[in-house]
């Protein structure tokens, strides 16, 4: 069972998202929050596997909240679920440690698949967001490639293999199957990769994999 916390200041939105999640028997909404402070408190109380976080909330917005959640609950996956897809929001959310960025206007199936993906150690991006991220990578790869390759050189050969697959968007379970490893070993490799690359999360590590030409 994947335990989910919903954080949005609009009760109707929370009710709608809860209704979407209710069709999946593997998902359970364990708590709700109406602002960032409450989201952090409820996360510490309920220890959900995934937090769905709106960007614009009172008192403490979603962008501030994701950074704090990464500090106090690093084992909890965070997905931004918002109507706002401006590049500045996307860049900051991913830089601060969000594991995914989905739009409220998207297909409900994308939301369900995204929650499963991040709960398994993967990432999820709305198609329109993914296109922007890839476009940014294409535009800046040449200027940032040398620095990325230098960072990747610090990794062991096995860690580079894991990073390449991480860059393809594979979850820990999928990487384990591809490399014939147990999932726990993959988790250790991913943790080491994040430390060595000084990456805040899997998304930033995946970007480094693309910049370094591993993908």
From TrEMBL:
Keyword tags: DNA-binding, Phosphoprotein, Transcription, Transcription regulation
Pfam families assigned: GerE, Response_reg
Modified residue annotations for 4-aspartylphosphate: 54
Response regulatory domain residues: 3-119
Superkingdom of source: Bacteria
Ranges where the HTH luxR-type domain occurs: 148-213
The protein, known as: Response regulator transcription factor
Organism ancestry: Bacteria, Bacillati, Actinomycetota, Actinomycetes, Streptosporangiales
């Amino acid at each position: 069972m994947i335990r989910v916390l919903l954080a949005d200041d609009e009760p109707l939105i929370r009710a709608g998202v809860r209704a979407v999640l209710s069709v999946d028997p593997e998902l359970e909404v364990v708590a709700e929050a109406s602002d960032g402070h409450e989201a952090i408190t409820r996360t510490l109380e309920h220890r959900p596997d995934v937090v769905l976080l709106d960007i614009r909330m009172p008192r403490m917005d979603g962008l501030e909240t994701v950074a704090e959640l990464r500090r106090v609950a690093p084992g909890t996956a965070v997905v931004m679920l918002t109507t706002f897809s401006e590049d500045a929001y996307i860049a900051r959310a991913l830089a601060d440690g969000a594991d995914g960025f989905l739009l409220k206007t998207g297909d409900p199936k994308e939301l369900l698949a995204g929650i499963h993906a991040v709960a398994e150690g993967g990432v999820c991006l709305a198609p329109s967001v993914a296109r922007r991220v890839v476009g940014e990578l294409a535009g800046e790869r040449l200027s940032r490639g040398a620095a990325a390759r230098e960072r990747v050189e610090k990794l062991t050969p096995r860690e580079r293999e894991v990073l390449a697959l991480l860059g393809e968007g594979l979850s820990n379970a999928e990487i384990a199957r591809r490399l014939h490893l147990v999932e726990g070993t993959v988790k250790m490799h991913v943790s080491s990769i994040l430390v060595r690359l000084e990456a805040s999360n899997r998304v930033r590590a995946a970007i480094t994999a693309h910049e370094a030409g591993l993908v």
